[in-house]
Amino acid sequence: MIIENIKSPQDIKSLSAEELNTLAEEIRNIIIERVSINGGHLASNLGVVELTIALHYVFNSPEDKIVWDVGHQAYPHKLLTGRFPLFHTLRKYEGISGFPKITESPHDAFGTGHSSTSISAALGMLEARDQKGENFKVIAVIGDGALTSGLAFEGLNHAGHLKKDLIVILNDNEMSISPNVGALSSYLNKVLTGTFYKKFKKETKAFLEGIPKIGESVAKIAEKAEGSLKGFFLPGGLFEDLGFNYLGPIDGHDIPAIIETLSRIKDINEPVLVHVVTKKGKGYKFSEDDPCIYHGIGPFAVDTGVQSEGLKCKDAGSPSENAHMSYSDVFGNALMEIASEDKRVVAITAAMKEGTGLAKFAEAFPERLYDVGIAEPHAATFAAGLARQGLRPVVAIYSTFLQRAYDEIIHDICLQNLPVIFAIDRGGIVGEDGPTHQGVFDISFLRHIPNLVFMAPKDGEELNAMLKFAVNHNGPSAIRYPRGKTCRPSDNNNGRSEIKLGKAEILSEGRGVAIIAAGNTVAPSMKAAELLKKDNINACVVNMRFIKPLDEDLIISLCGKVKRIVTVEENMLAGGFGSAILECLNNAGMHDVKVKRIGIGDEFVEHGAQAILRKKYGLDEEGIYTAVVQGL
Ligand SMILES: Cc1ncc(C[n+]2csc(CCOP(=O)(O)OP(=O)(O)O)c2C)c(N)n1
After folding, report:
1. 430 Cβ contact list (under 8 Å, min separation 6)
2. Which pLDDT does position 308 carry in this prediction?
3. Within its chain, how far is the Cα of 290 from the centroid?
4. 102 CA distance to ligand 1 middle (Å)
5. Three-state SS string across 187-256, please?
6. For 155-162, what is the mean pLDDT?
């Protein structure tokens, strides 16, 4: 195989066009095979195989910096930059990451996982280069989905002003995770269908001829290529108005065509945007047919395309089947039920309709579902506007992406006490996606905001009840739940008391020690209590339910019965839920009770299976058991 001899991108520069195509085929097969075993991002990677080969052929990484946006499409890049021998460890604990990571390879110019950072980061690198008098190129590769974010536009705006030689490759596959949405997407579509072609053709030629030295020859190539490459050069008025020279659209699966284009724009000393058209999921029938389902997936059978856990999005059951459904699906079903009775309820997603369990809601209430694109800050303030006028917006968002909307939550929603509901999915340890995606900060960054009511359900039934509570609460609220399946009610002693503002529930009575948990740490705490019983230790287990307001009465009343409290949270210890308990005890002058907090210390949580990571941080039943026993 050619790939076996590619130790660095230098090794592809001597390959013939035919060999480059064979290499593309090999890379595609390796990715399909590996993702079918390890899970990961499939469709986005299959779409950029040829583009990645061409980029590495033309530019000299790591001197030249290729900055991937989101980074979920960096598998071909990893394979071309010396990581083929390690590729079997993709996304495994202590293996290679599913995203670019600067500590993993000098070829990973910038770490990422959240979208729309590439243009800003690339521009910063260029500016640093010039400040230091260095000499290299910087290329930002951004998808049409990632381009919907305000951050990307802030970068474009600044780039147009600085007029550096930034190269932006727009990888347009007309898809975000689901089909891309919004006015920008329609604009790109118009460009693709050639609406503007005739009108601007002359001007484009004039622009190309205006490029010093190489301009004339580029214009000739453009003319020659026009027939075969379907409109080789078309102007993108929007980008030109922002100060970019626009080239494209070009076929992103035609390696010689991309190489030729990149070689010619490489030395232009102004911002250039190259519009590359690719097919998401390219080269694997199932992902070409349904790039949404094969965007990010668990293990699957290559010949049938069927995932071990059944395909997502389409198989959510009814609310009564909550046990062993995913939290996302429980949420989606519960919201449908609530929305059918309460016309005020609308749902908002930031390009994550499927992931957050809103696909069925979108089908049932298309006019009440807003997909705002990858625009979390806008999602929050848009919700504030809806709430201000009497609606009950439910913003479903992953914990990690909610980080983007911090100021909007404080300034636009909580300060005005507006009834926006945040359904915070993937709160806690998410696993293989790693440190960019772990949802371990939300308790710390939300629990100090005045007016916000903040809940965490112990299981699917409780999520359902909390959502109903939140919709009827006259102020902002947030419900945090984890990635994965819900547990059985029996895992939590069948606890099912009514949700009351700021009230916890005791699931297991005991003396001497109390384990206080919130959300998905309740079930392992109950299991730990079972283990403790075998040692004749009867621990009291509290399901806190409300991280804010905290049930201070209950905590203080516990102090009469216990000398030790263990708190358990899938969050940073700093400013987390255990800290809230400490503050409560301190305020009440309860200095005799010892508190042991289990959670994440001052470090980022690396990638790996959820179970491995929970064990590492002592968040599983053995860890909780040990923390109790060691303190006695
Ligand atoms: C801030 C943020 N919000 C949401 C996501 C989740 N997400 C990952 S990839 C993606 C779609 C990206 O679409 P595009 O940039 O067009 O890339 P493609 O997958 O189509 O190649 C989304 C919404 C994210 N990574 N970061």
Report:
1. 400, 437, 438, 439, 483, 610
2. 82
3. 20
4. 20
5. HHHHHHCCCCHHHHHHHHHHHHHHCCCCHHHHHHHHHHHCCCCCCCCCCCHHHHHCCCEEEEEEECCCHH
6. 97
Decide if 375 contacts 404 (C-beta within 8 A).
no
Q: What is the pLDDT of residue 203?
A: 52
Collapsing DSSP states into helix, strand and coil, what is residue 493?
coil
Instruction: Identify the residues whose C-beta falls under 6 Å from ligand 1.
Output: 44, 47, 70, 72-73, 114-115, 143-146, 171, 173, 175-177, 280, 350-352, 374, 376, 401, 404
Structure tokens at 19: 């060999």
Place of tokens 């290529």: 225
Q: Which two tokens stand for residue 145?
A: 């989905």
Residue 488 burial (CB count, 10 A) = 14
Which of 51, 176, 280 is the pocket-test mutation for ligand 1 (most atoms within 8 Å of CB)?
176
> Could you give the maximum distance between any two Cα atoms of the chain, in Å?
87
Among protein residues, the one whose CA lies closest to atom 21 of ligand 1: 44
Reading the block at residue 296, the tokens are 């990010």
Give dist(CA 405, CA 403) in Å, integer: 5
| All domains in the chain, ordered by first residue | 60-76+98-277 (3.40.50.970), 319-480 (3.40.50.970), 504-630 (3.40.50.920)
Provide the pLDDT for residue 209. Answer: 59
Confidence of residue 204 (pLDDT cuts 50, 70, 90): low
Query: What pLDDT, on a 0 to 100 scale, did the predictor assign at position 264?
Result: 92
Q: Which candidate, 406, 409, 373, places its Cα nearest to that of 393?
A: 409
CB 311 within 8 Å of CB 293 = yes
Distance, C-alpha 426 to centroid of its chain:
10
* Structure confidence at residue 494 (pLDDT): 74
Per-residue pLDDT of 231-271, as tens digits, reads 344 557 889 999 999 998 999 999 999 999 999 999 999 99
Torsions phi, psi for 245 (to 5 deg): -80, 130
